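Researcher: Let's run the pair from yesterday's discussion. Sequence first, then tokens, for each.
Model: Starting with the first of the pair.
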Amino acid sequence: AKVLGNYAFVDKARIGIFGWSYGGFMASNCIMKGNDVFKMAIAVAPVTNWRFYDSVYTERYMTTPQENASGYDDNSPINHVDKLKGKFLLIHGSGDDNVHVQNSMQMMEALIQANKQFDSQIYPDNNHGIYGGKTRVQL
């Protein structure tokens, strides 16, 4: 994004980032921790706290939370909400069986407690793909 912002045809004041699932985690982390680069982020079904995610996956890469507490905490966007600058849209399906909606609910609460403005959209009973009916049209 920093390189793209150097092109005359790019408005660097309007560069955003979008991600879904792990990409949603990355979009969240970028707007929280790399807040000088992106002006907005859209995060769909993101992991916001690695302690909430599947231990088979997390422990393979980060060992256990007891052995690597700082690794889990430093890389969880929920712990960096105070750094949010710019616009943030958080989207999740309430029936997500991969990244539990608890990730987004806890993130929303952390943002509220940090007095940070954000937008959110919860899709009732939709899974990780947020698919079915007219959800994709609306999304």
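Model: Moving on to the second of the pair.
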Amino acid sequence: MQPKGIFDIFLTKTKDSTRRNRNEYIKANVPLLVESINEVY
């Protein structure tokens, strides 16, 4: 069985604590998203 992508690996590794890890992932990446959006506009 081959994983389809990085997100599949991420989800597989964090099934036991998905909510906490997803929140940390969002906290880490939302500021980067906001910065890139501000750069575009």
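Researcher: Give me one sentence on the second I can quote.
Model: Residues 6-40 form one domain.
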